[in-house]
Amino acid sequence: MRIPPPPPPPPGHNAFSVPLSHISRGALSYFRRARLTTTLPPLRDLNLYDQAGLLLAITRPGAALEEATEAQWLKTDIAVMCGEAWVSTVGCQCWADASLVPWSVLGDVGEGGWPSATVEVERAEKGKAVWVYLRVPGRGGAEGRRVPIRELTWWFAEEDEGWEISVAVYAARPLRKEGAEGEALNVKI
After folding, report:
1. How far apart are CA 158 and CA 130, in angstroms?
2. Which residues contact 66 (CB under 8 A, 6 or more apart)?
3. Burial (CB count within 10 angstroms: exposed 0-12, middle 13-18, buried 19+), residue 113
4. Which of 146, 110, 114 minimizes the C-alpha distance to 50?
5. Looking at the chain, which terminus has fewer C-beta neighbours within 10 angstroms, N or C?
6. Consecutive H or E run containing 81
7. Edge-to-edge strand order for the sheet containing 51-59?
8. What DSSP assignment string belongs to 3-36?
């Protein structure tokens, strides 16, 4: 059995600085569901922590997302760690924590070895939770089934206080390969 080396330690603070492309913003109480399919380049072209996916952030009414100090957020994406692609979900209420699902559980998804995944974030039928689902493709291109991969039980706790939600897509290349500092991360959304 081959055990991969551990990843580098995470940062000692919550960083909220990824470039975003906003899809929508509105009252948290109106949110029901968001879905996104993301495709990264082949693994041989990717760097540690390359990622692309869906970001949801909740803020006090009128607060600018980029300047919000009390933002609570959730991101779900394809991310590269330990030389592999993972479906990653990170939730932050006070401090961020992450969960990982190996991209390989999806089988051979993606054209030409390009890792691809569809994620959905949906309000739970009851309570204040939001669920993150991974869409596992069916045979012959059929839609397949949704597999629950994460529940954030606190997500809608502030909805009665008028908090707002922003839904955005993003792509980030936090680390550069030496000699390739200007190299862009090209993804399909």
Report:
1. 13
2. 20
3. exposed
4. 114
5. N
6. strand 72-81
7. 20-27, 164-172, 51-59, 72-81, 84-92, 96-102
8. PPPPPPPPPSS------EEEEEEEEGGG--EEEE
Task: Write the pLDDT tens digit of every residue in 78-137.
Answer: 999 988 899 999 998 877 888 999 888 777 656 667 888 899 999 999 999 999 999 987
Q: Tokens 């390739």: give the residue.
A: 180
Q: How far apart are the first and last CA of the chain?
A: 36
Quote the tokens at residue 46: 């990717």
C-alpha Rg value of the chain to the nearest Å: 17
Nearest to 86 by CA among 52, 112, 59, 111: 52
> Is the per-residue pLDDT at 65 higher than 80?
no
Could you read off the pLDDT of 72-88 as tens digits, one per residue?
899 999 999 988 899 99
Residue 150 one-letter amino acid: R
- Please state the pTM of the whole predicted model: 0.83
What are 170's two structure tokens? 């993003």
